[in-house]
Amino acid sequence: MAVLQQELQQELTVGEVADMLARALPGRRVEILQGRLIVTPPPDGSHALSLTWLVEAFGGAGARKVGLRYVQGIGLWLPALPDDFAVPDFSVVDEDFRDALVRKNSYAPNVFRMVVEVTSPSNWSDDLHTKVECYAQAGIPAYLIVNRKHDEVLLYADPADGKYAAPTRYKRGQTVPVPESVGVTLDLSVDILLDGDD
After folding, report:
1. pLDDT tier, 198 (very low <50, low <70, confident <90, very high otherwise)
2. What is the rounded CA–CA span in Å between residue 6 and residue 85?
3. Looking at per-residue confidence, does 169 or 84 come out higher?
4. Cα–Cα distance between 70 and 63 in angstroms, integer?
5. How far does the chain reach from its first CA to its final CA, in angstroms?
6. How remote is the C-alpha of 14 from its chain's centroid?
7. How far lies 105's CA from each of 39, 73, 76, 126, in Å?
């Protein structure tokens, strides 16, 4: 910690501070959203199970056969500010996404078809507000929020002029159709998304 304190006494960019925090706090997710540094604790069990189920669902729907990959926790470069990047919980990307590396393990937004965030007690506000703006400005075709705080799932789709229209809201007992723009036909159970299993 003494080294971290010594480095912080120097004048550093927010990107440099993010790098230091990522090294000093293993297991934590470090992001820069609209110039603001965000540090999130590791996910809980239900959160992790939701992501595992998404992997199984997209695999079962044949996403790989149509040239898609589905990944957890890769960086999404956000073009609004020079150091901005997010680390979505789950993303559906083009199969050649690795060719679109921008920097610091973050990839260009044009290879992302859909991003999913599962809210946690400490960061739900960022998922519901800041990331909606950031992902719309980046042109992400579909943004799905598993809003455990309010027991619903929100789907934002087809941004225009850097903004999403109002989300479609889904309640327990319903399914969320993955938008056609993602490139795979799939309905996602709201209950499993919220609870992590059936």
Report:
1. confident
2. 25
3. 169
4. 8
5. 43
6. 20
7. 17, 10, 8, 21
Q: Where are the beta strands (DSSP E) in the chain?
A: 29-33, 36-40, 68-72, 75-77, 85-86, 90-94, 101-103, 106-107, 112-118, 142-147, 152-157, 168-170, 175-177, 187-189
Q: Name the 3-class secondary structure at 25.
A: coil
Six-digit token string for 99 = 């060719």
pLDDT for the residue 1? 47
Residue 107 contacts residue 128 (beta carbons within 8 Å): no
Tens digit of each residue's pLDDT (9 = 90 or more) over 80-134: 888 899 999 999 999 999 999 998 789 999 999 999 999 987 778 888 899 999 9
Give pTM, 2 decimals: 0.87
